[in-house]
Amino acid sequence: MPVNPLLALFENFEQVSNFVQHHLSNFIGPHLQSSGLPGSGSLLSISSSTKAPLAKTTSSVQLGDTAVKGKSTTPVPKEELGRATWTLLHTLAAQYPDNPTRQQKKDVKELVQILSRMYPCRECADHFKDILRANPVQTGSHAEFSQWLCHVHNVVNRSLDKPVFPCERVDARWGKLECEQKACEIIGSTSLFGKI
Ligand SMILES: Cc1cc2nc3c(=O)[nH]c(=O)nc-3n(C[C@H](O)[C@H](O)[C@H](O)COP(=O)(O)OP(=O)(O)OC[C@H]3O[C@@H](n4cnc5c(N)ncnc54)[C@H](O)[C@@H]3O)c2cc1C
């Protein structure tokens, strides 16, 4: 029986997506979905355009023999993707421990490298690769990682003629998630599992 090439494409996409989700879940933990992000309307926000409309969805899209329910039909704008990605990275940095384990340092480095290869905006990914070459990721502690991230975000800001963010205020802008009983603590934290 002939194989539908679209099905093969979807299977590949699903594998990549699962891989990225697996890496991200190492940092965010299983409770992110039920938590709100703090500070999204913060006074320290330097952007005036944070309310991009969400991509439209349809209840059912016909693709050959396959019905894909609830999938987005509108491409995500570069700006929206950027805001979502920075939110993920800064929130992760806010939760990154003062004394990370070796595994956590390795994971965060890998995550950043994977982003620079797989970020779904080619121009941005290539730009980010150059930035990483000049600014290797700093993972020694919460302060190191969040300041490094603020710095590289500012490098991108400058290249886009956006205002530079004052990095001494990064902890005020990007707080930790509010979760009961340390439920948002990233997996592998020294306090939960001991040092690796
Ligand atoms: C890795 C990466 C590379 C990108 N490269 C490109 C590119 O080459 N070309 C392109 O057009 N777009 C690129 N983008 C998208 C771009 O950076 C913005 O996300 C997008 O233009 C939307 O900008 P924004 O003004 O809404 O705020 P964003 O830059 O998305 O920032 C979101 C919020 O973060 C806060 N913030 C801003 N700067 C900092 C900082 N330094 N530290 C901490 N918090 C801060 C502000 O409150 C701001 O509202 C890239 C995004 C990422 C994640």
From TrEMBL:
UniProt cross-references to InterPro entries, sorted A to Z: ALR/ERV, ERV/ALR_sulphydryl_oxid_sf, ERV/ALR_sulphydryl_oxidase
Coiled-coil region: none
A GO MF label: flavin adenine dinucleotide binding
Chain ranges of the ERV/ALR sulfhydryl oxidase domain: 73-174
Substrates-to-products reaction catalysed: 2 R'C(R)SH + O2 = R'C(R)S-S(R)CR' + H2O2
EC number: 1.8.3.2
Any one GO CC term of the record: mitochondrion
Cofactor: FAD
Keywords carried by this UniProt record: Disulfide bond, FAD, Flavoprotein, Oxidoreductase
Physiological role: FAD-dependent sulfhydryl oxidase that catalyzes disulfide bond formation. Oxidizes thioredoxin in vitro. Required for the import and folding of small cysteine-containing proteins in the mitochondrial intermembrane space, and can act independently of the oxidoreductase MIA40. Can oxidize the cytochrome c oxidase assembly protein COX19, a typical substrate of MIA40.
Annotated protein name in UniProt: Sulfhydryl oxidase
Lineage: Eukaryota, Viridiplantae, Streptophyta, Embryophyta, Tracheophyta
